[in-house]
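Supplementary Methods S3. Complex input for the zinc ion-bound model.
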Amino acid sequence: MQLLPGLYQVGSSLSGLTSDQVAGPFDDCNVYALDLVSEIVLIDCGNGDSWPEIERNMRMWSLDSSRISTVLLTHPHYDHANAAHLLKARNVQIIAHSYTADALRTGDERCCGFLYHRSFVPVEADCMVEDGDTLTFGTITVQCLHLPGHTLGCTAFLVSWNDNRVLFSGDVIGTLGYGHFGWSGSIDFDRKAYLQSLRRLAKLDFDVMLPGHGLCSFKNPRARVETSLNEALMQWRY
Ligand SMILES: [Zn+2]
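Predicted complex, serialized as structure tokens:
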């Protein structure tokens, strides 16, 4: 579905864009497509099984998947990144934080294949980023923000799009309701780092938040982050 001109959500089991056959509504993450005309940049790519559905959805909005040049991965969890090997085989550039790239390379428990009773297919990233790095695609610049906690490699991507500061936040906070934060079962979950990341995110200036699951926020998204921070402080204070 089109979220802003040239910006689409093309995958999500929770939104009914892709199927939920293995582990229910969290089978597949929200997959976003930025149409830069000369190329398409994806944010996350889903669990792999859903790739044909994502291509079908892209066709629905006249997006030719052969124009995909790059996928930016928010973290290595199976529902976000297991399709990366399929894209790599089509010469799509895989970009991830260095910690996430290490998990992708090994396909180990940090990728959470066990949650889906599947093996994560290892994949080599083509480009590794660190906190504060910027990436340029055509006329846009993407800022990389390392926000560890849900996993140690979690990265959000901030881009100015149609006069909106759009944050692709991955699983740094949950958006099924106010005050949620991402699933805490990852083998590399770190609540101390998570709290720091939420404190940092709560000070960031952005207009639109497009999360890894659930609902997008087009109005005052920082209020959601602040509520999640408060919830985390109450639950995890020590
Ligand atoms: Zn996750």
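Residues 59 and 65 are 8 Å apart (CA to CA). Residues 221-236 form the longest helix (16 residues).
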